[in-house]
Structure formats: C-alpha cells, structure tokens
Recover the amino acids of this structure.
C-alpha cells in the first residue's frame, strides 16, 4: 500500500469584529479550543468591540459532529493522525490570515494573541515560526507545546508580555495543582502574569476585560 499526500486549494474561515481598516490600532487574534467554532468564540469578546480594535477569531481546519452523526458541529486544530502535516497547514493558514489583516490596518498596529485550551499550543507553534511579534500573548486554560525545546520557548516567550489564565475549578486540571503549573514557568525562568477566576474550562468576562484594557 502506498499513501501519497496531495496539496489542494481549500477554504478556511475567520470571524471579524469589524472590517479591517487604517483606523485599527489594536488587533487581537483569537484561537478557539477543541470542538468550538469561530463565530461563537468571538461572541465572548463582543462587549469589548471598539472602532480602533479588531478582534479576529480563526477557525480550525477540521470539523466534526460533537455528538453522533448529526446536530451541532465543532472544529479541531489537529489530532495525532498526520499531526506534522496539520501543523504545517495551520501555520500556512494563520500566516495568510495575519498577512491579509496587516495589509489593511494601520502600519503601527499593536498585535495581540489570545488562545484558549487546544488553541494555546497551536498558537505558540505558529508564533515560534512566524515573523509576527505580538505585544501580548494570552494562554487561557492550555499548555505549552510539549515537542519544542524549552530553551527555545523561553527565549521567545520572554520577548513578549505573557499572561497565563486558568479557572480554579477547571475539570481538565482536576489532577493538577495550579501551583504546579506555575512552577513549570518559574523553573524555566519564563516571565508571566498569572490570572485565576472562579470558574471552569471557560472564558470569563471580567478577566477578558482586565486583559484587553491593561
């Protein structure tokens, strides 16, 4: 049996808070978590939409039914199947999106990235290989990529303003003490600002407000 990969044209989707223009001074690139869709993810940021700030939620390239074979649909960034290929495709997709936005907004725009859950490692893998240098990176309810050398990650992360956010009742952290998560960053001498809120594996409006307005 011979398996041959083919590169084909395809369509990806992103949702925008407003039309990109030269009036935009701040851009927030948003990467959702497993099983979410960009059009719903961006709604969490609607209270913070302004004329000079652009929120853009990119959507994962793979879609599936959340339950059974019909009903609600979600998106995923990758699985273990052909994972390296997915990483390359995602990187190309996010490069195209970022470059398209950059062509329309103010040249001195301030770039920021907020990633949730599965989107955290996805965002960092892309950023490590990208020319983009965001002013602020927010990792919410997710982890660092496990397959990239920590010295490389530490060097990159210490060149940005890094924020780590976790809910104190996140079921995905049931067997992990939040203090232990902090020890990983402290042990690697990664500079960050720590945020927690009373809640689970979800976004939290007051914490978003702090991050956006800070």
């Amino acid at each position: 049996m011979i398996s041959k990969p083919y590169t084909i044209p395809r369509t990806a989707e992103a949702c925008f808070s407003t039309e990109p223009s030269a009036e935009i001074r701040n851009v927030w690139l948003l990467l959702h978590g497993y099983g979410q869709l960009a059009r719903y993810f961006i709604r969490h940021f609607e209270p913070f939409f302004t004329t000079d700030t652009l929120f853009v939620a990119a959507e994962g390239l793979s879609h599936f039914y959340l339950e059974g074979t019909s009903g609600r649909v979600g998106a995923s960034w990758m699985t273990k199947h052909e994972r390296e290929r997915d990483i390359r495709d995602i990187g190309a997709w996010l490069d195209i999106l970022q470059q398209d936005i950059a062509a329309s907004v103010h040249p001195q725009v301030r770039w920021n990235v907020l990633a949730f859950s599965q989107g955290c490692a996805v965002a960092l893998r892309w950023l490590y290989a990208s020319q983009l240098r965001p002013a602020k990176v927010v990792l919410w309810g997710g982890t660092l990529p496990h397959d990239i050398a920590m010295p490389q990650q530490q060097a990159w992360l210490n060149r940005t303003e890094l924020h780590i956010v976790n809910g104190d009742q996140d079921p995905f952290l049931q067997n992990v003490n939040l203090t232990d998560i902090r020890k990983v960053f402290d042990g690697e001498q990664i500079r960050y600002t720590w945020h927690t809120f009373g809640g689970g594996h979800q976004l939290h409006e007051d914490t978003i407000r702090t991050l956006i307005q800070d």
About this structure: The domain at 14-213 is CATH 3.40.50.1820 (Rossmann fold).
